[in-house]
Design goal:
By secondary structure, this protein is α+β, with helices and mostly antiparallel strands. The chain has a single domain, classed as Aminopeptidase (3-Layer(aba) Sandwich), CATH 3.40.630. It has a seven-stranded mixed beta sheet, with helices on both faces. A hairpin with a 5-residue loop joins strand 3 and strand 4. This is Regulatory protein MsrR.
């Protein structure tokens, strides 16, 4: 069952909400805001096993267990099935200071349960989140605990909230020509839809690999931007607006109770670093064409599974 929540990786927003909720100068107003949001969106789970008591922090049993959140950015074109344009697994362990991001290249050639070998983004077109989760488990031994889904417009909306004045990033002549921007090469300010174009561009030698790097870059900049707002006292309205906008746009298996519970852990054990990995890792794949799948990245399974084991909690 899905609930509406947020468009950026949920584990980042958890921190923002809790810091806001614990701010003593706004304790009388924020709880009522959160209650109103929860009631309006009807996000409270009807499944008793999903309910949690938000006033208690993570217990000892939960503290050592990694939580994997699958973030799917989808793209649907005319007369085509919806496919996953972005696949990121955000991983954290409660009470640990590091957030880990695993970016799966969309053309990675894997075994899709019930369908045989194909690109991993085909799993989303054929079976949605459930088939992607099964594919990640079968090929990489990644157990997914929660999912977050967003489309292009969701992303644009959230970038407008996080970066209302835009964000400075390095752009190239190729990007300018492809997207018909009225800009000069170098570090420039991008807003809303331009940020989406920036992370989606693949017209250079880096192709989809450059895409993944820019996705991770924007996530890191978003975290930095919001944390700066929190420190400057502007975090409360930002957190509330993110929650409200997220309810309108994006689907997730997280409930408000679960967000608050994990957020308490972040309050006392803040995230202070973000580590990233791309699958397939460098030197472990070849670009080839497969009948029925097109151009794919055929990876060395042993090398990539070992890399994930060394990277993950």
């Amino acid at each position: 069952m899905f609930k509406k929540w947020t468009a950026i990786p949920i584990v980042l927003l958890i921190t923002f909400i809790i810091y806001a909720a614990m701010n003593t100068s706004t304790q009388s107003t924020l709880p009522s805001e959160m209650t109103e949001i929860q009631q309006d969106a009807d996000v409270k789970s009807t499944n008793e096993t999903e309910k949690t008591n938000t006033i208690f922090p993570i217990n000892k049993e939960e503290a050592g267990k990694p939580i994997n959140v699958l973030v799917v950015g989808s793209d649907q074109r005319k007369n085509e099935a919806e496919r996953a344009d972005v696949l990121i697994v955000a991983q954290y362990v409660p009470n640990q200071p590091t957030l880990k991001l695993i970016s799966i290249m969309r053309d990675t050639y894997v075994d899709i349960p019930g369908y045989g070998k194909s690109k991993i983004n085909h799993a989303y077109a054929w079976g949605g989140n459930d088939l992607v989760k099964k594919s990640l488990k079968q090929n990489f031994d990644l157990e997914i605990n929660h999912t977050v889904n967003l489309n292009f417009q969701d992303f644009i909306n959230m970038m407008g909230i996080i970066f209302p004045e835009g964000v400075q990033v390095p752009i190239t002549e190729g990007m300018i020509s492809h997207w018909k921007w009225d800009k000069q090469p170098g570090t420039q300010k991008l807003k809303g839809g331009e940020i989406l174009q920036y992370v989606r561009y693949r017209g250079d030698v880096s192709s989809d690999f450059g895409r993944v790097e820019r996705q991770q870059e924007i996530i890191a900049l978003a975290e930095k931007n919001i944390m700066e707002k929190l420190k400057s006292g502007k975090g409360i309205p930002t957190a509330i607006e993110l929650v409200r906008e997220g309810f309108k746009n994006v689907e997730t298996t997280f409930s408000v109770d679960q967000v608050m519970k994990h957020g308490l852990s972040f309050l006392f054990h803040p995230i202070d670093s973000v580590e990233t990995i791309r699958i397939p890792v460098e030197g472990s794949y070849q670009s080839i064409t497969k009948p029925g799948a097109g151009d794919v990245l055929e990876m060395d399974e042993t090398t990539n599974i070992q890399a994930l084991r060394e990277f993950s909690y």
